[in-house]
Specification:
By secondary structure, the chain is of the alpha+beta class. The protein has one domain: Immunoglobulin-like, CATH 2.60.40. The protein contains one helix and ten strands; from the N terminus they run H-E-E-E-E-E-E-E-E-E-E. Strands 1, 2, 3, 5 and 8 form a five-stranded mixed β-sheet that branches. A five-stranded mixed β-sheet has the order 4-10-9-6-7, with no helix packed on it.
Length: about 140
């Protein structure tokens, strides 16, 4: 019987830790989304095979983007960008220096499928440096 109580306690403890980890992903600036703009000139989302993020229309988000320098970069040190063409005026034109940066943004107000791309010539594969941003109602 004592073993059963220990097992239940350990399961409850693990569930509590997992819940705290998930709660940590919501910040005062909105839901935390982590993206890597990698040295192989590809966008990546940790824990996912394909680089896709899903947002709710108009929701506040905090993008934490880690940029790693590819084969080319701008003279000002910009190594990549994360840009949604047509939404630059809404803040979706992020110039990325090497390292990790955070950006507080509001998801697009119109549901749909958007393409984020790198607009900084970053080396071989630059033209394919894109990812999908899905906005739901």
């Amino acid at each position: 019987m004592e073993q059963a109580y220990r097992t239940v306690f350990l399961i409850a403890l693990l569930l509590g830790i997992l819940l705290l980890i998930q709660l940590d992903r919501v910040t005062a600036d909105g839901r935390l989304i982590e993206i890597i703009a990698d040295s192989d000139n590809q966008f990546k989302v940790p824990g996912q095979k394909k680089a896709v993020i899903t947002l709710k229309a108009g929701e506040p988000v905090l993008l934490r983007i880690t940029a790693r320098r590819g084969g080319e970069w701008r003279k000002d040190g910009t190594v990549h960008s994360f840009t949604i063409i047509g939404l630059e005026d809404e803040g979706w034109d992020l110039l990325l220096k090497e390292g990790t940066q955070e950006f507080s943004l509001k998801a697009p107000s119109e549901p749909g499928e958007y393409k984020a791309q790198c607009t900084v010539k970053c080396g071989i594969g630059h033209n394919e440096m894109r990812m999908k941003v899905i906005v739901t109602p």
